Amino acid sequence: MGMKASPSSAHGRPGSLRRIVGAVGVAGVVATALMTAAPADAAASTLAAAAQQSGRYFGTAIAAGRLGDQTYTTIANREFDMITAENEMKIDATEPNRGQFNFSAGDRVYNWAVQNGKRVRGHTLAWHSQQPGWMQALSGSSLRQAMINHINGVMGHYRGKIYAWDVVNEAYADGNSGGRRDSNLQRTGNDWIEVAFRTARAADPSAKLCYNDYNIDNWNWAKTQGVYNMVRDFKQRGVPIDCVGLQSHFNSNSPYNSNYRTTIQSFAALGVDVQITELDIQGGSATTYANVVNDCLAVPRCTGITVWGVRDSDSWLGAGASPLLFDGNGNKKAAYNSVLNALNNAGPSPTPTTSPTQNPGAGQIRGVASGRCVDVPNATTTDGTQLQLWDCHSNSNQQWSSTSAQEIRVYGNRCLDAAGTGNGAKVQIYSCWGGDNQKWRLNPDGSIVGVQSGLCLDAAGTGNGAQLQLYSCWGGNNQKWTWNRA
Ligand code: G3I
């Protein structure tokens, strides 16, 4: 009978177990047996796992100074899969003296995240605030050049390692003008934001590039419209921008509004991802938290949510504001349960978009220069076999799928694997084992970048049998790939 549906029949759809159990009704014994037999259908029990069901992430800000607090790290490690350094990658932290970069605190947060299997958002490269004294004292072309050097220095250090950078932070004015905020950066010329984005794209082509701001959540606010117009203009003129970060610090002066979903939809419709980057809600209303999550879930290009701290006591607002999902003792609050439930009740996975940075599903990987596909020679499964280009066909040795762990798999259990980190290192198949040499970033420009090396998947020719290797990314079509979904 239908009740005996196999676990895979509703794979990953958490609502289905509840429907099955409900249909069983009073036959509690059967229901219990089904629950035991079908754990894959159980609702996820952490925020990250629940968000992953729809292809999204759930992140938190992390402060390096709290990494010694075991309650803090236990919760953070268990619940979140995307990490933002709360202060440690900002300008004053990373370039305290002009031209002298310091990544010690940033790396502590980065390493903790990666060692625990999490991805990292970079925050932030160009901002009027938290500038070191030397930068505050600059103006005009020397400040412009310092901004460019800073972006190159920080993005160079983390090249290939960051999911998305908040390239420019908080550049728009509060109030009714809808215009730019006055700042030393703004006074270098109105083009400072696009210069920052162009610099960022060149510095690390593998990172998504975001504009991030607060008070751009309410669709009716002038500031929201100002940022929207800038993003639309950037997309029209080809200024590289991949995402908009809605900080979403909600409080009585900037409350959640039901038009938030319209805001997310409107930005997404411009062809950028939307990320909720610094969520906190003064008072911690469980209903408002659920509304925010549901609004993101309603828009396929809303790709993830980050809360701005772990426990109330970790918040920049102070514990009294009760703005986060865990109380000062690390207990789950009502808001936590409402967020988890909302994530577990999400609809189907987001529809793949045109951005190759999202999970493209299974299919052939076709070289733009050659028109030929990434191919395992002779359909061998032997570890260490170097990959080649070959005329595209539909056999299994050209069927690749990307995973949420950033692997690119063939035959289900073999991974695209870099046999080194330098130019010319061979790209081969190898049994999947979770190493960084088997992780790849899929970029908006079609390049595929090795996480360990920061180098691009490169075809050393265009004909049948041309070998695949790593090589410094240079923007050529032999380093660009399209994924033909099955
Ligand atoms: O670490 C020092 C400490 O040694 C010193 O004794 C103390 C004295 O004031 O300051 C400490 O540094 C503070 C730091 O947070 C770490 O707690 C800084 O003063 C303080 O300015 C800094 O505040 C940060 C704030 O950005 C600065 O603009 C908050 O932690 C951080 O949560 C907040 O985050 C921002 C986002 O970057 C951008 N969007 C808004 C968001 C909230 O303001």
UniProtKB/TrEMBL annotation:
Keywords: Carbohydrate metabolism, Glycosidase, Hydrolase, Polysaccharide degradation, Signal, Xylan degradation. The active site is at 278 (nucleophile). The keyword Signal applies. GO terms for biological process: xylan catabolic process. Signal peptide: none annotated. InterPro entries: GH (IPR017853), GH10 (IPR044846), GH10_AS (IPR031158), GH10_dom (IPR001000), Ricin_B-like_lectins (IPR035992), Ricin_B_lectin (IPR000772). The keyword Hydrolase applies. GO terms for molecular function: endo-1,4-beta-xylanase activity. Its EC number is 3.2.1.8. PROSITE patterns: GH10_1, GH10_2, RICIN_B_LECTIN. It catalyses: Endohydrolysis of (1->4)-beta-D-xylosidic linkages in xylans. It comes from the Bacteria. Residues 41-342 form the GH10 domain. Belongs to the glycosyl hydrolase 10 (cellulase F) family. This is Beta-xylanase. It comes from Planobispora rosea.
